[in-house]
Design goal:
Strand content: 15-25%
Number of strands: 7
Structural class: alpha/beta
Largest sheet: 7 strands, parallel
Order of helices and strands: EHEHEHEHEHEHHEH
Helix content: 40-55%
Length: about 180
């Protein structure tokens, strides 16, 4: 069983209605199944919903906080183990190093950066993370279509798309994380 789950997601709360419950569901699943969350450590939006759900469900929470967020006093009280980093690149590298599998919930530019970095590392062979897109409300449909178009145009190998698993429920996550 893969036990340390890196979750990349938005820290925003002014997002479509389907997204916050997805963060809660994933957090409850991580906690209920005795896994550990590795996430960005912030106490805002989806990040806080996720971390609190993990803690309330009995899971462990590792937060990876860049200095700028610490200076802004944005560290969640759900964090049990903290890694402090100089910036976002260090945070991303630490999260990848400390995790067994990656789950991406709805997110913005930072989440895309994290997913594509993990995918690029897998593609060139410097890492071998399982990457799961939690497709709440179809949030990843456009990106998946773009990747399929890149494959069709021979800009990327078909294996790029094959390296990504899709989940829409925590039952999917459980099956994929065995």
């Amino acid at each position: 069983m893969k036990t340390r789950i890196a979750v990349f997601l938005s820290s925003r709360s002014d997002i479509p209605a389907a997204y916050l419950p997805a963060a809660r569901e994933v957090g409850e699943w991580i906690g209920r199944t005795g896994r550990t969350l590795v996430y960005g450590g912030a106490r805002r939006g989806q990040m806080e919903v996720l971390a609190q759900a993990v803690r309330q469900s009995g899971g462990r929470v590792i937060g990876v906080m860049p200095d700028i967020l610490v200076q802004r006093h944005l560290e969640s009280d759900a964090v049990q183990v903290a890694f402090y980093t100089a910036g976002l690149d260090d945070r991303k590298a630490t999260m990848l190093r400390e995790s067994d599998v990656i789950v991406a919930l709805p997110g913005g530019i930072g989440t895309l950066d994290e997913v594509f970095t993990a995918l690029a590392e897998n593609t060139i062979g410097t890492a071998n993370h399982q990457i799961i897109l939690y497709n709440a409300g179809g949030c990843w449909d456009a990106m998946l279509a773009m990747l399929r178009q890149m494959v069709s145009d021979h800009l990327a190998d078909a294996e790029v798309v094959e390296r990504i698993a899709i989940a829409t429920t925590t039952d999917d996550l459980e099956r994929l994380c065995q």
